[in-house]
Amino acid sequence: MRTETSKRLHRAAARLIPGGVNSPARAWSAVGGNPLFIARGYGSHITDVDGNDYIDYVCSWGPLILGHAHPAVLEAAARAMETGTSFGAPTEYENRAASLIVDGIESVAMTRFVNSGTEATMSAMRLARAATGRDMVLKFDGGYHGHDDALLVRAGSGVASQGIADSAGINSKLASDTLIAPYNDVDAVESLFAEYGRKIACVIVEPVAGNMGVVPANSEFIATLRASTSAAGALLIFDEVISGFRVAYGGAQSLYKAKPDITVLGKIIGGGFPVGAYGGSAELMSHVAPLGEMYQAGTLSGNPVAMAAGSATLELLRDSNAHADLDEKTRRLAEGMEAVFREAEVSACVNSACGMLTVFFADSPVRNMADALSSNHIAFSRFFHAMLNQGVYLPPSPFEAWFVSLAHSDEDIELTIAAARDASSSLDA
Ligand code: PLP
Q1: What parts of the chain have a pLDDT lower than 50?
Q2: Is 83 helix (H, G, I), strand (E, B) or coil?
Q3: Ligand 1 atom nearest residue 117's Cα
Q4: Centre of ligand 1 from the C-alpha of residue 329, in Å
Q5: Span from the CA of 237 to the centroid of ligand 1 (angstroms)
Q6: How far apart are CA 4 and CA 2, in angstroms?
Q7: For the chain, how far is it from start to end, CA to CA, in angstroms?
Q8: Rg value, the chain, Cα
Q9: What's the confidence (pLDDT) of residue 164?
Q10: 421 alpha carbon to ligand 1 midpoint, in Å?
Q11: Looking at ligand 1, which atom is closest to the CA of residue 146?
Q12: Would you please indicate which residues are annotated as catalytic (active-site) residues?
């Protein structure tokens, strides 16, 4: 496979942009080699600048649940652009997108749009602090909630792939208000609440973790979070930036039948354009300016093009049998992977939820970040490159979710399983 043009462009980019990338997850630090520059994508496939074609399981890290360049999304965005790209004043596009979210996510009666998941989690946390008058936040080891100072502590995939525990430049006073517990660990949550309960403003959790690789929460863990926060007068924030409208139309909260106080969304709701949102009850959202005392604003927030593309995506998901179909595709891929590794006698644990999965080269179940870290990363790097050579583009880190879209065909899944069979022969995990 020739990748000379990607290499040349990466050399040029590295002189202009740190590491040649605008987000570290794109840098291939965990697997080695040269990131590919992508020329185009259509459906489940992408083509790099040297003309190589791949089945894509990154899908822009989650937004593209319909696949690349879906005609309904392109048309919605193009139509919106014809009438102007941004006004800094309200548009009908925002009403349509907000009502899709309010109708789709049961715990959300009112929502505010922002421009990224990071902005949304940061604002959700500020809202929790405003509403409770407390400062402390409890998050989980390996949970990534964007790069806000208070949340960039033991933050999973991107940071773990870089081999740095935390970031430099974090305001240590803010970070010291962040408590950490292992994911899926009920006892740890209960003992932190016993010690700090009345100081905790909120717990923030990915109800299906995607940033230590895919690790679904167990029901008891979610129930404990709900009970502990309610008892202590703290708020429960579900970060559904990945899981919202993916693991089910109603998000992970509909699967766990749990009602968070604040829900954070992103990715899918922008249809491939920059977006984030946070929402909750009307009473809680009345703290947000201009209704209340918590200030939060944005020049491009609720951008009409992003709103139009996101609404087209959500309407298509809502009005079709999308999630049953996506679940079936994901299940087939996960089971195919498990069979391949069983036959090849390679130790592997395949974790999945609708539309997302991760293969961990581990010989026991992966339930938290410590388990993920103890998986075999060298085996993953070999596997990643062996798959790439056969035209399958996986996330370049052992701690990331592979994203399955509705555009992935039966043939794509069969080809991926066949490629894994071949790749597994090069592993001695
Ligand atoms: N929350 C979760 C669960 C995420 O996976 C991400 C990004 O991957 C974020 C928040 C931050 O979103 P963004 O990258 O749009 O800032």
Answers
A1: 163-165, 429
A2: coil
A3: 12
A4: 24
A5: 14
A6: 6
A7: 25
A8: 21
A9: 47
A10: 32
A11: 11
A12: 144, 239, 267
306 neighbors 81 (Cβ within 8 angstroms): no
- State pTM to two decimals: 0.97
Cα(100) to ligand 1 centroid in Å equals 21
Q: Cβ neighbours of residue 335 under 8 Å, at least 6 residues apart?
A: none
Q: What is the pLDDT of residue 255?
A: 98
Helical segments of 269-409, H only: 282-285, 304-318, 322-344, 369-373, 377-389
Instruction: Give me the pLDDT at residue 160, please.
Output: 59
Cβ neighbour number for residue 101 with a 10 Å cutoff: 23
CA distance 199 to 195: 9
pLDDT tens digits for range 207-221 = 999 999 999 999 999
Q: Is the CB of 121 under 6 A from ligand 1?
A: yes
Q: Which atom of ligand 1 is nearest to the CA of 274?
A: 15
| Closest-lying ligand 1 atom to the alpha carbon of residue 121 | 10
The three-state secondary structure class of 316 is helix
Across the chain, what does the average pLDDT equal?
95
Which residue minimizes the CA distance to atom 1 of ligand 1? 145
Extended strands (E) in 163-280 = 178-181, 200-205, 208-209, 215-216, 235-239, 262-266, 276-280
- Give 197 Cα–ligand 1 centroid separation in angstroms: 27
The string of pLDDT tens digits covering residues 298-340 is 999 999 999 999 999 999 999 999 999 999 999 999 999 999 9
Nearest residue to 97 (alpha-carbon basis) of 318, 321, 292, 322:
318
* Binding site membership of 146 for ligand 1 (Cβ less than 6 Å): yes
- Smallest CA-to-CA distance from 310 within 120, 76, 89 is with 76
Task: Kindly tell me the burial class for residue 328, based on how many C-beta atoms sit within 10 Å of its own C-beta (0-12, 13-18, 19 or more).
Answer: middle
For residue 351, give the nearest of 365, 363, 341 by alpha carbon: 365
Q: Is 118 in the pocket of ligand 1 (CB under 6 A)?
A: yes
- Whether 130 lines ligand 1, by a CB cut-off of 6 Å, is no
Q: 241, 301, 356: which to mutate for ligand 1, most atoms within 8 A of CB?
A: 241
